[in-house]
Each structure stands twice: as C-alpha cells, then as structure tokens.
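Collaboration report, partner site 2.

Our partner group contributed sequences for two proteins of shared interest, and the home lab folded both. The records are reproduced in the order in which they were received, starting with the first partner submission.
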Amino acid sequence: MDQTVFSRRQTLALLGASSAALALPGCQKAIGSAAPADATAWLDSLAWQLLELGPEGATSLGIDKGDRAGLRSRLGDRSAAGQARVAAVLRSALKQAERFESPALDQTTRTSLAVVKSAFSVGLDGLALPYGDVAVGGWRNTPYVVIQNVGAYLDVPRFLDSEHPVRDAADAEAYLARLEQFPAVLDGELERLAAAGRIGAIAPSFLLDKAIRQMEMTLADARAGGGLVESLVRRTRDIPGTWQARARTITTGPVVAALERQLAELKAQRGKASDHAGLWARPKGDEWYAWGLRASTTTSHSPEEVHQYGLEALKELNARMDPILRSLGYTKGTVGARMAALGEDPRFQFPNNDEGRAEVIATMQAKIDFIRTKLPLAFRTLVKGNLEIRRLPLAEEAGAPGAYGGAGSIDGTVPGKIWLNLGDVSRHTRYSVATLGFHEGIPGHVWQGEYANRLPLIRTLLAFNAYSEGWALYAETLGDELGAYEGDPVGQLGYLQSIAFRACRLVVDTGLHAKRWTREQAVQWFAETNGSGLAEVAPEVDRYCSWPGQACGYKMGHTEILSLRDKARRELGDKYDLRDFNDAVVTGGNVPLDVLGQNVDRYIAAAKG
C-alpha cells in the first residue's frame, strides 16, 4: 500500500481513505436524483459527483477548470456527518447501478459498472464498522483517523504545496480558501478521533508516540508561519497581493489552534494506550481485520490462509536466492542472514549524507532510463511515463514508508512522482534501488496510472489495492525479465529480496492482527527472515499496524497476475505474446482480481480467434 507531498495516487486514495472527504454538503441530492438513461452518461455523472465530494482529487487530476474551477477552493469534509453522507451516497448509487445491467452494454461499460459495485459495496461494509477511515475506491483503510501516517495534519500541507497550483491570483485566492477550511477539517477528524477513544479504539502506544512527535513538528512549523505560508509566498512572487500576511494570519491563528486541539486529544489517548500492536486488541477488531483483508486483496481468504501462503512463497523465493548467494561467496547461515550480510557490505551502501541522497536519486533515474528502452518489448500500447523523482518532506519521513509513487495529472501538466524517504539513507542499497524504481515508477504505478487516465473518469477514481500493488510488483518482475540485472547477480538478489519482502508482509500483517504477535516479535522475525535492516523494517511494521491488511494486496495481486499469464501461455501456445497479455492487463484498468480474470479470459478468447 503499499500506502506520504501528495502523489496523485495518494490524493485519489483520500477520496476514501478519509472517507468523509467524499462528503461535502449539498452533493447528496445530485447523486440521489434520477439517473441518466444512458449508463455511460450516468457513470460520468457519478465520477463528477465523487469529485464534488472530494475536491482535492479534481485538483490532483488537473481537471478543476472551467465550470469546475470552484472545486479548487474546497477541501473535503472529514467529520462524522460526512461519513454518514458518504454511506447514503454509496447506497443510492448501488441501487441506480442495477438499472443499467444489460447484455447489450459494451464491455468497457460493463467493467465500469462492476468496478463501481465492488468498490461501493466493500466501502459500505467498511463504513458500517464503528470506527476508522474507509477507502472507497482506494487503498488506505485504517482504524485510526489520526496517526503517524494518516491525518489532515500531514495530508493538507503536502497537498497544498505539491498539488494545488498557484499560477495566478485566482489560484492564490483558492489556496487561501482551502487554508481557511483546514481548521474545520482538523476538527472534523478530532470529533471522530475522540469518539473512537471513548469506545476503546485507541492506537498502540508506539504509534501514538510517533504521531505526537510529528504533530508537534507540524505545530511548531505552523506557529512560525512555516511551510503553509512559505509555499504560497514562493509561488506568488510575481503576483501582486498581500498573500504572506493573509496566509500567516490564518496559519498562526485558527490552524495552530486546531492542531493544538488534536495534539491534546492524542496525548490524552496516549495515557490510556497499550502496546498491543494488532487489531485483535481493539473492539470488533477481528471483524475489522477480516474486512480490511477483503478490501485490500479483493478475495475472501482468511488470515490463516494468507499467513500460510506467505510462508510457502518465502520457501520458493529462498530456493531461488540461495544459489546466487553461494555463487557470490555467501555460503553460511540462512538466506535472511546472508542477505543481511550483503546489506552491510560497504560496496552496496550509499553515504548517509546529502551526497548519498543525490546518488540514490541518480541511480534510480539511470535504471528507469534503461527500462524505458525495453518497454516496446513488453507493451504494444505505450504511454509517455511522465515522471520525476523527489525526496519526501522532512517532517513526514519518520512515519512514511521507503518510497511511494503515482501518475500525474490527466493533461500531463503535473508529472507523476516517486517520493523517496531519504531521512536514513541506509534504507536503500545499491542493489535495491532499481526494483524500487520499477515498482513505484516505470513500468509500475506511474506507468499504470497513465493508462488509467485514458479510461472513463470513474475508472481513474476507483482503484483496488490488489491490482495496483500487484501490478507494481509485476512491474518489478518485468524489470528482471527485460534484462535489468543481466550480468548483475547482486541486482537480481535485490529484486528477489523485494518480492520476498512482500511475502513476509503476508506473514507479519496476519501475525500482528490475527495471531497476536507483538511489534518486537514482528520486527525481529521480518529482519531475520528477509535480511532487511531494522531501519527499513521497523517503520514497515508500524505501517501494518495502522493500515491493517493493505500490505497483503501486493503479493496476492502479483501472484494472480502471474497465474493468469501462465494460463494465457498454456491456452494460446504459439499465439501467446507478452505484449498482448500486458496490454490486456493494463489497458483493462484497475479492477478487482475476479474482474481481472474475466478481462484476461476475453483476451485469450480473442487471440484464439
């Protein structure tokens, strides 16, 4: 997931990840009114209604223009009332979707209807849970409204800085309008945070410690004006107006006060918190986790089944890694122990300073430049791959994963991004950077997102974790198959360790939430089994505690794509072509895994003639 300045992927995730972001007043009537007779028109109308409810998504996509320009001045509502409204919207849309079921519909429209019904049905089940945020058509499901990697205190500042454009006075006014709404967004979260605390749905103590530290950093910055003011000032140097003074008044006044209220509640909950890491220790935790797994994998596998699958996948991957390690002279100990020794070899480390940070980015860029030259071998339909690589903001690094990425705006004016966590450079090695770039960038998230931008708008908005992350992991496999590690056995080990890392996630995520593992147990098992450094593993485990189930989508989706590819090879024989298979998967759009299987079956039937 998986799952922090906004990438488009994250902005769209927040259409649901703060499910109340889908719930601005005045929008329910439009969705609940009579639907257009034409299914395509209705789907387009529904997409725009979702963007009315989550205006940040329209900005991220670069489509808050013309008669939709008003969206640029608004933020989504994250209150409890907002959640109630989004549930009503989903129920209404599901009823209307049934009216369009017909064999006469074209395949694209049928797939879009299936996507809507799946995303909204799962979303409604999640919204029926007594606490948490639900990603309606997104990936960031969490039981905790505000925590180390979740909350408006993180989301809004990076969104305003990296996604909200400031090209003229109207854009600057829209920035200020959003800044004025920021305190209300924080207070909407606060209401739900406090309500969860009253029923005992309190985050683990170690997550609250991180969240409190990060909010204190955000608060200190806001008290000084800081990034919220500087971002606007930097981009209005040639635009006349009292931008600095106005932004500073809002930031140092109402924004600071709202942050102080959230911080006080987090500290109060810290006094009641336990160190139990998993959802099993929270009210209705088993029910919440079963839903989280279903939402993240688009399957009905039980925690025990997912746990055992992870262990089996690790055995297979270790069997591939062992002979490579032996060929390099690493012959003693487990595969994990030998990979840990490899990671400590100075030859494969970057300097832990600004020069090292620049070298990480340059190394990843070079690998992506290489893979671009190979993509015509893997795809018939090519997109641009509009991409830049950037470092995460400093205040975010402690709670964020090693990297994440997503495509840019539909019109191409905002490039896709890979955001790298470079606070501790030891999280990245010379043999791991390539596969990370393929996953987050090309042909992974950024690449796949550009195909999604060509689909009907509703398909751009609604996404499924198992497909998104399964595709990104499959992109790593393509990097290996297209020759990225030819003559580079250490680089191939980095790729295999990355896949094994995702298999470990299946074991650790289910271990934490269903088998009552402690945080320390999870970190230790992960580090020893995969040979990853503690600097990488510890925040990963914390992420699984705050996004239950999300980390399981990667390997489950990856395995399904590879299984479907094997099926296509078997059934097509000489008619099989990798380019046609990949086109069938990526141009069919982001779908639940059962719908993906249907898309591949249609490709196989067409190829057979």
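Second partner submission, folded after the first:
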Amino acid sequence: MKIFENKPQLLFFLILILLFFLRFWGLTANGVQHDAAINAVRAAGWLDFLAGSGQTSPISWFGEIPWWGSLSFHDHPPLVFWVENLSLKIFGENTFGVLVPFALAAMATGLILYYLVKKFISPSAGLWAILAFAVSSYATWVSRAGYLEGIEYLFLALSIFFFAQYLDLRRGRFLAFWAGSVGLALLSKYTAIFLLPAAVLYLLFWDWRVLKTKIFWLSLLLIPAVLSPVIVYNFQVFQATGHFDAALSSMLGMHPQDFEVIASRGINFNLGANFWSILDSLVTTASLPFLVLQGLALLFALGQVVRRKAGVLTRLLLLHILMIVVMFAFAGAQPRFLAILTPFLTLNLGIVLYEWWGKIATRPGTAQALAGGGLLLIFALELGYGINTNLLTKPLGRERIFYSPNRFYSQGFGELEQYLRDEVFVPLPPRRHVTKLEELTYFDVKEPYVVIIDARADWFATMWHVNRYSFYYNAPIVHFLDFHGLMKETGDAFAYLRKGGAVNFWFVLTTPAGIVGSPGDEEYQGAIRQLQALLERSRVQPQKFIKNSRGQTVFEIYEFSTAASASSGGS
C-alpha cells in the first residue's frame, strides 16, 4: 500500500490515535472485575489479604505483617501491584486509577514494536507491526482488563528489543538492559520465565560464541538482583511454612494447605487438554479471518527459518512463541495467561505482511487490488470485532463470530460504589494503614450507620467496589452471611448493632439477575426473605435500583432507621 511508503509519518500518527482510542475509550465503563479487582484492592493499601481460609497470606499466618511480608505477595510477584499503587496515588483511588497503567503499557508496547521493526527492517514494516498490534482485539482486551499480563507484556517487548539490539550492535549494555527487562518481566509474573530458554536456544542455534563471553554471564546476574525482593520473600516463607509462595509452589508441584483453593494449578502432563486450551483461547479472542492470517504468517516465517532465509528478528520471534506454547503445554492456558503471545504474534504478522506486500507491489493491477482489498477487509473485521468485544456496552451479532465470549459486561458495581460514596460514606472515614489481622476481622461500629451487603453478587468486584472501604476506611460493612450469623447468635442483630452506635441501616440486596454462582442455601435465602418481609411490613421501599449493561436490575438498595428495625426481634 503506497501510503505506507509515501505518508509514513501521517500513517504512524493515525495508527497511534487508533491505538489510543481502542485502549482508552470507555475504559472504566465495566468497573473492575475478576482477578484485577482483588489485585487492585491489595495494591491500594499494599495489603496482602483475601479474607478467605483457602488462600491465606503472612498476615493470616502470623496475625500481623512480618518485616518481609511487604516485599511481595502470596500469589504473585510485586511489580504490577507497585505500579497500580503508584497509579492510584496519582489518579485517585478509583477505577480509572486501577486500569490506566495497563492502557499506558499498551501504548508503550506498541511504540516498542514499531521502533524495533523500523530499525531491523524498515519504517514501513514498523507501521505494519504497530497496526497489527493496534487492531488486535486480544491485545486490546488484555490492556483494558487489568490483568498482570497487561504490564508483563511491556517488559516482554522490551526484552526482545534489547536482545535484538545486542545481536546487531554487540554492545554489552544491551545485554544488561535485556537481563534487566527479563527480571522486570518476572517481577510482573512468573510466566515470563520462557524468556530465558528462548534466548539461550537462539544463542545455541545461531550465535553460540556469545555463551562464551563474560558479559553474557555477568548480565545474567542482574536477573536475581532485580528479583531480590521475591527471593528474600520466598526464603522467609519457606523458613516459616515449608513451602514457597502460591505461584512458585504450583510451578514446583507443591500443594500446601495454605493455598488449597488454587491447589489444582501448576504443572501437569495432560498435553491433549492443555493444547486444546491454548487453541480454544486463541479462537475465542480474535476474529476468524485475523486468526487465520496470523496462522499463515507463522507458517510463512517457519518456512523461512527452515530454508535459512529468516532474519534475526523472525528467528527470535518464533523461538519466543514456541517457548510460550511449550510452557503452557504443561499447564494449560486461559485467555488471560496466553495474552503474553500478543506482542510476538502481531510483531511477526507485521513483518510477514511487509514482505508479502513487497512482492504483491511488483504486480500492479488486479492482483494488487484484490490483495489490498482482502487485507483491508481482514483488518476492518478485526477492528469491528475488537470494538464489539471491548468498547460497546451491548455487543452486536452472534457471540464468537462478531465478538469474544471473554468480553466484560457492566455488573452495576461502579454505580453501586458511587451511590455508597455519595449517600452513605459521607464523610468518608479517615484512611488507615493496616498491619494486624485483628484490624480486618474485628468489627466495631464507629459510624452512625451500617451497610449490609448481600454477598451473592460477584465476589471479585465486591472486593474492590465495596470491601475495600471496610479494609482501609473501617467503614461498617457487614456481609449478610455474617449478619445472619449475628442474628442467630444474639437473637436481635439490629439491637446489637444499635448498642454499638448504629442509627441508620442500608441493605444492598442482590437480585436474581445479579447473583453470580450459587444463590445460597435454603437457610440463607430464607433469611433474605425474612429481612425483605420485615422491610415490607415497615413500609420500607428501595431507595435505588441499579441495573447492569443488559438493563436488568441487579441491586436494590434499602435505607431504614432503628425505628423500622426495632420490631425485628429474633427474626
């Protein structure tokens, strides 16, 4: 396409706008969900606590945070938590503050891919690469989801950038930068471990003399230096418990009781199922034409390697992709895990498209028009698939064909949190720094209100949008399960809470449309019905109805005073 050669600066600017639009438009619309939510809660106050018995942490083991407990987290290394903590301090403790680092990391990753290919091949090839990354629905999805991989793949891109620079210029500082990037990638998530065998295999196959240089081995020392917080943390955890953190324990086949909820994770030899999970993850995250195009580009690049016509960058990319696939062949790959493939797949696609177009350009006329129109159509379909998956509140068309089943939907938590901030937590209690377990588990009513939460809504989103106010602001939030236990224990939960100073009560009911997972056992459901009947007898009506993206009411919020609750008795 002539515009790639004739207007490169204009096209680069337009692609950057597209990259920005796809990563930032409506970024906060769906709130914070899944693992991103529990990571954000812990990052906000640098507190490693999940309020469960099946996945515990040092504060649970010792009743307080030991001196080394703040060096890392029980299930992940600390870098992404630190980035989020910094972002929340800069942008405020809100959904934008949680998600913006991942969108910015995507912008930086796109620029790295562009300049890498521009240097090693040509500016036009760089445009193909950043365009492929920009429109990739999979790359867009992970940059908006708040998963660790959204920061990790920035350092993956940096590592291949510096390694390729060293191979080209033979300057030792690039090896040091590469090792530092590997360390930072591992400090983001341990799945970056594939970077080491990929680099070593490249040197063994094509540049083995580097393995004999002192600078290579000295550079490797930077990796444990960067990882020193995690190393110290895991040494102390092993000394205290006989196992490592949850991620390392899974990788090493250890299944301690402290992490029994996630004990099934880790290495396994069910290769058939694991390969199927890889394939399924890829198929459900991209439009079919774009996925086929990426597959053809991989086959073409592999053919070049076999015929010994591949350049340094192509060989590096294929080895990195291969090592990712091998790694997940022994662990399985959910879409969020496999997202680390996106920089390498789109980079390879950009390089191959540049080569293909160079050949097509020599055949002007019908062939060029058909090829150009075909590529334009494929990219347009992927762009539409990505917008449908990541930007639209209500997707159009059929799932899996026009949008990914992995897309996020608003569950109403953003509106719920805003309502609590505006109507209940006024003024918001002072923020506290938690260091002891009793601060999280001892309930003390210090405000003239109590918020009772029906905990059948999504647990992950509840952690960020509701529970964090209990953790960090000591807001009197009681989950209905605990409230029901208090009713059985005291005979009159409202009277007990009134003695603590509560005057007004807020009850957040989760409707059937908002229930995630089990609707609760019969006793729980019966207690909910009892409370609803009490409110109905007291003529208390919902003050607020909150809907999800499908227009269904997911939360009903009731406000009532001690007068309404006084007749509850032992109900």
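Feedback sent to the partner group on the second submission included the following. The mean pLDDT is 92. The first helix runs from residue 2 to 6.
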